[in-house]
Amino acid sequence: MSLAVASACAAFMPAYAQEVASTPGAAATTDPAGQEATSPSSPAGVQTVVVTGLRASLESSMNLKRNAQGFVDGIVAEDIGKFPDTNLAESLQRISGVSIDRSIGEGSKVTVRGVGPDFNLVLLNGRQMPTSSLGDRPGRAYDFANIASEAVSQLQVYKSARAETPTGGIGATINVLTARPLSRPGMQASIGVKGVYDQSVDNLPKDITPSDKLTPEISGIYSNTSADGRFGIGISASYQERNLGYNQAGVPGGWKGPFRGDENNWGTIPQPGTAGSENITNRPKPGDLYQVPQNLNYNMSGIQRQRTNGQLVFQFAPTKALTTTLDYTYSENKIQTRRQDLSAWFNFGPSTSNWTNGPIAGPLSYGEIISPATSDIAMGGADFATKTQNKSLGFNAAWRVNSDIRLEVDAHKSTAESVPDSPFGSGNTLGTASFSRGTTTVDFSKDFPVMSIQGADFARAPQQVTGSVFENGYVKSEIKQLQTHASWKMLEASELKFGLATTDVNNRSAFSVQQRDDTWGGATKASDYPASYFHQESLSQYFDNIKGSDNPALFNTFYTFDFAALRELAAKVTGLPALYLPRNDYTTDQRTREKSKSFYLQFNTDWDLALPVHTAIGARYEKTDVTSTALVPIATSYTWTANNEFAVGLGAPNFTTLTGKYHHWLPSFDADVDLRPDMKGRFSYGETIGRARYDQLTGGQVLEPLGRVEGGTGRQGNPGLLPVKSKNIDLAWEWYYNKSSFVSLGHFRKNLENYAGQSQVIAQPFGLHTPVNGAYWKEALAKGGCVNGDATCIRNYIFRNFNGQPGVTRGPDDVNGNATGKIVGQPNDPIADFRITSYSNQKEARLRGLEFNVQHMFGASGFGVSANYTYVNSGLKYDNASIGEQFALVGLSDSANLVGIFENEKWNVRAAYNWRDKFLSSTFDGSGPNPNYVEAYGQLDLSIGYNVNKNLTLQFEGINLTDEIKRIHGRTERNLLFVEQSGPRYMLAARYKF
């Protein structure tokens, strides 16, 4: 790879045919893909000396930073077909200020300088890319796990605003560059094979363990040009299989509350002098906040993934002044998930508890007294699959009209589509239970929550099928974009750049849910499900890396099952096969269209002052029209189906359409001064925007199908939302003290406005009546001897005294003799409350930070080190002592990287440690407005390569060698939400370069 590659890429938009920058100090221009070109100091058309390897990659990345306009960092491939990391997100995390979110054990989405994934724009060869995910249906965050790294030649991270850069990236604009044949004349080719072993696959129950522990990966890239250099063709492809697992424990339903220590409402702990108050140790004081868990869940997931990537590129240069490029990019990511779990729901009856000191008290233990032992020990299974495809077809023509004027046209159509890839849908759960749970206590004092259950008797109460959920989801995003760029060299050291663009984005998110709400107490009788369908397992072995999992008090027995076999049996014995498959239609269908037009003007010039100064001043105008159409189901009833479970009845859906629009002028100014030939100072001011997530824009009120005694939840978007606008200031000092080494210190500030504040309002949509506190309920309290929170007593009384009367349909008693059935709210009953989440432009935020970078190569020894640290701070933090909705910046955290290398003719070794401090990941948990904090996480990765000869290389890679766990908590560390154990990943590869 040319040492000038990175410096040549400093300006990917506009991107021109390969040539030298004639303006002193200006960044070199690029080929039509925005990549490999000559050094500013090289004669036109002449490449500098070609070197490869880790050191060359670091040197090229350094040159990118040094020669860029504005604030740019990046990663450059070591050689054609050989990127430094197997995952692009894991490469990006090596850059100062960039942190990643991990999914299924690898990097997926990025946060830059404390700005979350939805506000970072991803480009492919300078083109805006769509994104889709069934895990995050309405988001804009790009999932880098969909792209293989082999065909990528560079990653460029643009941290400061520039007029010529497309809008959408507040934290950064990230440009992914792929290989172009005319940039590297002649034949270039390589092929690689790899065996992948993820140790986490060894730590799963047998029913969900993938069959193969060692999986293959094969990749290849081929590039060639005609003898006269006019034609070029490039082909790259890769296929990877990966099998893995991860195990989670926590409170996925969230924590009820927060409550004040002197409250006495449903769900609170008993007050002094009331029954059960003697069971509380270190009671939260009046005014202290505390929360109680909704449920406790242990789940184990086995994952199989197949990822296919390919790109085909044709280039034709009929003259030296004109280069055309036609390219097609394809990726497919298929994921199959099988899951088993053990869980217990709390119904906020008589309890025992032990608390830390306030003012925010965390539970050291929490338990509910259940007698007789007839509650459910729930054990569920899931078996679903998804497929995501990305397709991009693009054309580029770059024309050097004369020595002063250059023109470029670029057009593309790109789609991202996520669909179910299983007859069982894109998500599902088949519940089973043994109705033998007595008093249940959870010890939260360690990292791992330890659940103890009294009275469990699987012989007396064998497993049986209970509730079920089958979901089908669909997401598609399509972008059609046309961009034109021009530049005109003026005077001796100036250049005028300008361009126009039109972008049409269509996003669709649709889903349907098939849920049996009335069977959580048992779909049929237990004898319908032979014991041979269930397989006994021990729990603690799957969490052996988490502190506290060896506690002998842990309830250690659970049962797994073959999902497909048990689903088929349930469909047969119930006689309702259609209810054990997903629906074929979509009951919710949300579509958003954004049509944007933009224009930019930018003037670059050099100033021959006491110190050489290079400046760029510009402005970008952006106008966007938003149309949101939503098909949402109309709610018709609110039905009590189980102790604390209510079903929202849905009627025929209707479409609604809402619109919005906005426009912005976005100025930018960059200046860098050559303090010395080896030292630079930089300053940048610019304004950028980041568009709202699609769930924030989509109109139509959607109620969640499952409600509780206190009411239900729902959401409604607002297509009139303005984008978040950021005013950015950057300062930096950079010292390039030798060819391969530098040190830099940077400071940044962002003033952000128009954040969409997420708030919940209590509403009564559709006027749904609830049986809670209705006539039947009140009579059960008055005549049935039921206390207000005893749902079992109230339901038994209603079914035994009002069966057949309006709204009451009694089913068979369960194994414990409790009545089952449905109780529908009646016209004279109260109206059900729903917490409706919506959005409006109401929030402002300020953040600031420091970035420190150092890279040092130890002469000719082969050793080198690269390190960086980023400090980010904002006064807008979550107040854990405050009740209710509040706004705080998510993703804000310090981060650091330390990379050491050694390289000679035979060996190349890299050890990389990445660390991210604790950060707020969400302001809502499963129960309402409560914080989610991801605890500090550090990971060590290692790669060792051996060059057998100039063509053949052997490689070993190890990811997460320290076998780290991931933990998320709420208002205190004892308010555990999730703790996750996975495992290291190892790869052995061979690569042959032709």
Based on DSSP secondary structure assignment, what is the total number of beta strands? 50
Number of domains: 1
The CATH topology = Maltoporin, Chain A
What is the radius of gyration computed over CA atoms, rounded to a whole number of angstroms?
30 Å
- How much of the polypeptide forms β-strand, as a percent range? over 45%
Number of helical regions: 7
- Mean of the pLDDT scores? 89
- The geometry reads as globular
Domain TonB-dependent receptor-like beta-barrel: 435-961
Signal peptide: 1-17
Domain TonB-dependent receptor plug: 66-172
Biased composition (Polar residues): 36-45
Q: How is this structure best described in words?
A:
- α6 (775-783) packs across α7 (791-802).
- Residues 1-51 have low confidence and may be disordered.
- β4 and β5 (127-128) form a beta hairpin.
- It contains seven helices and 50 strands.
- The protein is mainly β.
- The chain has one domain: Beta Barrel (Maltoporin, Chain A).
- The longest helix is centred in the N-terminal third of the chain and has 14 residues, at 54-67.
